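DATA CLASS: polypeptide
GOAL: derive structure tokens

***
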Amino acid sequence: MNNTRIYIVGMKPETSRDSLINLLLPLALILGLVLLLNVNVGGTGESRETTPLEIWLKVIIDYLAAGTEIAAAVVIGGAVIKGIVAYLRLLLSRSKQQFDATERIRLQLGRVLALGLEFTVASDILRTAVAPTRQDILNLGAIVLLRTLLNYFLEREIQQGEQRRLQEQQTID
């Protein structure tokens, strides 16, 4: 059996350590998410007085968090519209490079989705900035872990797509 590897210029071959990390990281994130979702903070009777400053800070932070969520929606929505327009142009042009162009559109959308996920994580962090309870922190941890897991797989897919595109360009050249 021939054990030939293709090396892309400027890219390092994946070592066994890297492949182990690529396997263990998602498993650790999934395990952490399951553990956080199973933690039940009993007795929500955490009663403490809120100061007028906390009330005003909460209102301001809620507006900032809503603005961050709107920004995420605008970024993702704009990328979706741009992707649809690019795809329709591709369909109407009857180009011979349809697969390459479709892959490029998909990778661009993936990058923007990763950015949108970062905006939503920022929004969740803002919402727990003022006097969070233990339950708020656990919920934030679960949300951040889930979105980090999504972002990890999205970034990995983008890297693999870019590697495939580079390999195809090298074979064409």
